[in-house]
Design goal:
The protein is of the alpha+beta class. The chain is built from 4 helices and 3 strands, in the order ββααβαα. Strand 1 and strand 2 form a beta hairpin.
């Protein structure tokens, strides 16, 4: 089975800070954000709700997508999130690999 790569967006709430990241283990990475295991932006601002993610087979494609999303305007990111998750649910509670 090929390894999957994830580009994900975390938030606190709709009008709060957003964080975009990439990982090959979404469960582990979200757990690290939720438990503030790794110091930094998400721990400082309590950004730990998984509101969006995409799955890729290739790490280079995932990295390119992460960089693309980071350059987007905030309104575009919100539109992307709300297309699939209009309630801003924490997808980590539903996510099954």
């Amino acid at each position: 089975m090929a390894k999957a790569f994830y580009v994900y967006i975390l938030a606190t709430r709709k009008d709060g800070p957003l964080y975009i990241g990439i990982t090959s283990d979404l469960h582990k990475r979200v757990f690290e954000h939720k438990t503030h295991t790794i110091p930094g932006f998400t721990a400082r601002y309590n950004v730990d709700r998984l509101v969006y993610f995409e799955v890729f087979d290739d790490p280079l494609t995932a990295i390119a997508r992460e960089k693309q999303l980071k350059k987007w305007r905030r309104a575009w990111k919100i539109e992307l999130i709300e297309r699939d998750n209009p309630e801003w649910r924490d997808l980590a509670e539903e996510f099954v690999p």
